[in-house]
Design brief:
With about 900 residues, the protein is of the alpha+beta class. It is about 40% helix and about 15% strand. The protein is built from 29 helices and 24 strands. The strands form 5 sheets. Strands 1, 2, 3, 4, 5, 6, 7, 8 and 11 form a 9-stranded antiparallel beta sheet that branches. Strands 16-18-15-19-20-14-21-22-23 form a 9-stranded mixed beta sheet, with helices on both faces. It has a two-stranded antiparallel sheet with strand order 9-10. The chain is elongated and about 165 Å long. The N and C termini lie far apart (about 170 Å).
């Protein structure tokens, strides 16, 4: 035992020496490190730099494999909150579809809201390539189309501002719950609504969504719980301090001392004691109250919100950023979006300045997500940003959506004056090749005719051909000052059938004329159909009248064909010779004999076997309308000439500007209108002989469709159905859509590329607003000012509008083109181009035409033709 004691003592001394040596070494090392601290800092910085470089390289490599999708919503997109939430879950899940080695900053999905003038707000999603299939199938259904998007390359702008937004306020409080109606994106859309692409304006918002890492969430919760407990302890200490102060004040008061003297009992010893004060105990911190939205793990994400605005004009980018900052205030509640940085007087240090600018640009260019510590949100808070604009979003019309009208440009068709959100006005247009049919509705004096005239005048100055049919003639004197240009005068022709003035001049037209190379069967069909349309004939109600008229027209057309081939077009028959053919046996015999070889066997058989059996009163229904035409000296002169000047097919092919003013809307005028309309349809269809790319565009304008369709409903309906194929595009104006025949109304609305309405009664406007889904409502349209229009248009294959336009007033939009001093010269040129002659001269020529035709038939009738007797010995005058 005694011998072992020194050994144990030596071991203890050795151990103590080792411990002392270790402590001494640690002290020496600490002292050395203190003296050479910069080496430790350098080593730490080197390790951190190498690690950061490796992470950045890996993140850049992962970001290079990202994909982009563009979501385009239609005007009926109206998602529910559940659909939007499901989309958010998809985005959060897709953010992790990265390789295992990818750093966390690369594991994010980015929503890009971009306004650059090409669209009001483009909605793109960029994320890992592995999440493309998940992101391509959205819960929004067919109302949102998902397309693979190409990378966007921006040209450098002279002025650029950047900003990063972080959540300020109570960190555990949610953002404001913004309803879906109106669209939560509306403030952002309004902020970029006055963007001007020609000035280089650009605005882009990028929202990065990243699934929350568990360790970061636990650390954040521990931090928040510790802060809540410290806050509770401070509150308890503050309350105890105030309680002690209150108790001390009470005990030192005179009232307290008197109360103690009066209530003090001898020997009790209580009078000298002080009142016992129990300090409040800190309240237990409930995790749900302290953590708020961070209490649950489900659907919790971290977000990074970056904004960049640029422009080539100084000050516009800064103003745009301020507008976007105000727009984000809509989402603010107890927690709100605020720009990150510091404000030093008039200066702000943020993402545009050192040292944060370089990091901002790296995250912006590579799509890396490094959100601030406070940017924790639940998917429900982001629902307003997780979908494209909905039906409840009012989108502005940009220059890229609706082109600006340029005078003299044949590719544009003037529509009206659009007032933008910033108050600027511009004349907007549609592309002429896409404006196939147009309909304008509205009350009298509302401006629909003025708008059509402005469009027609702009089209004429651009080199286009048109025909303007106006039963009231008011449009001609209104348009003349703006058409009185020397370059236009050779192309303008006036067909005026009103017979105004002491010695009116009238043009001429022979619907049966064959001198212009028409096909015989087409001419017969056009006139017969016009008769049937104006007189409401069909195969059930008037079969015999149709047969008689068709047979008579076939013979007269054959006569005219023979006259033209003989080199004598001045001897052609007119529509008034139908009476002579049916009622004058001598004329009939000569005509049938002269063209017997030109008629088919069935037609000759009808004249030989059926015609003699018809009673005399069978012809009255055919001859009465012709007699009414002949009784009017203007229509007699216009239709009674053998060589008519009016040729709408030639006008189409030579870009003529033809103004047709029928005399009125009575029964006789309706028949003439029906003949003109059917001839227009025949001429347009005859363009099938021309290759499609060689057909010159032509635009008929029909004012007062109620009057025109009353004469030829089926003809007008066929125009709206067929003439697009022949590059003949109809523009119609009417006061009441309901007054149009059903066939016309259905064809017109179905095929209208442009639909416009001015103010009017709600019942009259309702059929138009119904086509727009009652947005705007009839109440709103009915209270518009004069010359205001709601218009929907087709531009680049998609519908724009309905938007509100101010109708163009000729004195304003074409003031520079007005030539009032040249109006007489234009009037003379228009009548000269129509070869208008004095009415009495044409009337005399029409009266003598029957003799000329009879003489021609006598010369060309074969011998023995007198033996054919088809008169039945019954003549009627």
């Amino acid at each position: 035992m005694d011998s072992a004691a020194p050994y144990l003592t030596d071991q203890a001394d050795d151990a103590a020496g080792q411990v002392l040596g270790l402590v001494t070494g640690l002290v020496d090392a600490a002292d050395w490190l203190y003296d050479h601290w910069y080496l430790l800092a350098l080593a730490i910085a080197t390790c951190w730099g190498v690690a950061e470089l490796v992470v950045r390289r890996l993140a850049a490599k992962a970001s290079a494999e990202r994909m982009a999708l563009e979501l385009v919503s239609n005007r009926h997109f109206d998602p529910s909150m559940e659909e939007i939430f499901r989309r958010g879950v998809q985005l959060a899940r897709a953010s992790t579809a990265m390789p295992w080695w990818a750093p966390r900053r690369a594991k994010a999905v980015q929503i890009r809201l971009r306004a650059d003038g090409s669209a009001p707000l483009r909605y793109r999603i960029e994320g890992p390539a592995g999440g493309e299939r998940l992101l391509s199938i959205t819960p929004f259904g067919p109302d949102v189309s998902v397309n693979r998007a190409r990378p966007i390359t921006d040209k450098p702008r002279r002025h650029t501002v950047r900003a990063e937004f972080i959540l300020r306020g109570k960190p555990t409080a949610p953002l404001r719950e913004v309803p879906l109606t109106p669209d939560p994106l509306q403030p952002l859309v309004d902020a970029v609504s006055d963007l001007r692409a020609e000035l280089g304006d650009l605005a882009e918002i990028r929202l990065d969504i990243q699934r929350a890492p568990k360790w970061a969430l636990r650390a954040r919760r521990l931090q928040l719980m510790a802060a809540a407990r410290r806050s509770e302890r401070r509150e308890a200490q503050r309350a105890a301090r105030w309680l002690r102060q209150d108790a001390s004040g009470i005990e030192d008061s005179l009232g307290w001392q008197l109360q103690q003297l009066l209530t003090d009992k001898p020997g009790s010893g209580s009078g000298s004691g002080r009142r016992l004060v129990m300090p409040p105990v800190p309240r237990r911190v409930e995790p749900t109250e302290a953590l708020g939205k961070l209490a649950e793990d489900d659907h919790l994400v971290r977000v990074q919100l970056l904004v960049m605005c640029a422009s080539n004009t100084e000050g516009r980018a800064q103003a745009r950023l301020a507008q976007l900052q105000a727009a984000f205030d809509v989402f603010g509640g107890r927690s709100r979006w605020a720009m990150r940085g510091w404000r030093l007087g008039p200066w702000r240090v943020g993402a545009d300045h050192w040292p944060t600018r370089r990091g901002f640009e790296r995250r912006w260019n590579q799509g890396h997500c490094q959100p601030p510590r406070a940017n924790w949100v639940r998917l429900e808070e982001l629902c307003g940003l997780l979908k494209p604009p909905t039906v409840h979003c009012r989108l502005p019309v940009l220059a890229g959506d609706l082109p600006t009208f340029e005078f003299g440009d044949p590719t544009l068709l003037l529509q009206g004056i659009y007032r933008g959100p910033d108050g600027r006005e511009r004349m907007v247009a549609t592309y002429s090749e896409e404006t196939l049919f147009e309909v304008g509705v509205g009350k009298a004096g509302g401006g629909k005719t003025e708008r059509a005239l402005a469009q027609a005048i702009g089209w004429a100055h651009a080199g286009g051909g048109l025909i303007f049919v106006d039963p009231h003639r008011d449009s001609w004197p209104r348009a003349v000052p703006f058409l009185a240009h020397e370059a236009l005068m050779p192309r303008i022709a006036l067909i005026d059938l009103n017979g105004l003035g002491p010695n009116p001049r009238v043009s001429s037209w022979n619907p049966l004329g064959m001198h212009q190379g028409q096909a015989a069967h087409e001419v017969v069909e056009a006139i017969a159909d016009a008769y049937a349309s104006a007189l409401a004939w069909d195969d059930a109600t008037a079969p015999r009248a149709l047969t008689i008229l068709t047979a008579a027209l076939t013979v007269l057309v054959a006569v005219n064909e023979a006259a033209c081939q003989a080199g004598r077009p001045e001897d052609q028959a007119t529509i008034f010779h139908v009476r002579a053919l049916l009622a004058d046996a001598k004329f009939r015999k000569a005509a049938l004999a002269a063209v017997a070889g030109r008629l088919d066997e069935e037609t000759r058989s009808w004249w030989q076997t059926v015609f003699p059996t018809l009673p005399p009163d069978a012809f009255a229904v055919v001859l009465n309308p012709i007699a009414r035409l002949a009784a009017n000296p203007v229509t007699r002169a216009f239709l009674g000439q053998p060589i008519g000047v009016y040729n709408i097919r030639t006008a189409m092919d030579s870009t003529m500007i033809v103004w047709v003013c029928p005399g009125g809307n009575g029964p006789t005028d309706r028949l003439l209108t029906a003949l003109l309309a059917r001839d227009l349809l025949r001429a347009a269809r005859s363009r099938r002989d021309t290759p499609e790319d060689k057909r010159v565009p032509f635009r008929p304008y029909f004012d007062e469709l109620i009057t025109l369709t009353g004469a030829a409903p089926e003809t007008i309906a066929s125009m709206f159905e067929d003439l697009r194929k022949y590059r003949c595009h109809i523009h119609g104006m009417t006061q009441l859509l309901a007054r149009l025949p059903a066939a016309v109304r259905l064809s017109l609305v179905q095929n209208a590329s442009t639909l416009a309405t001015t103010a009017g009664s709600k019942s009259a406007i309702a059929p138009i607003t119904a086509e727009w889904g009652d947005n705007p409502s009839p109440d709103r349209v009915a209270t518009m000012e004069r010359f205001e229009h709601f218009v929907s248009m087709n531009v680049r294959g998609r519908r724009i509008g309905p938007i509100q336009l101010r109708g163009p007033h000729l004195n304003d939009v074409f003031a520079a083109q007005a030539r009032p001093k040249d109006v007489p010269a234009l009037e003379r040129a228009a009548q000269a181009n129509a070869q208008a002659l004095p009415l009495n001269q044409l009337t005399d020529r029409a009266a003598a035409q029957l003799g000329r035709v009879a003489a021609f038939l006598a010369e060309h009738s074969p011998a023995g033709a007198a033996a054919v007797d088809l008169s039945k010995d019954k003549e009627f005058g």
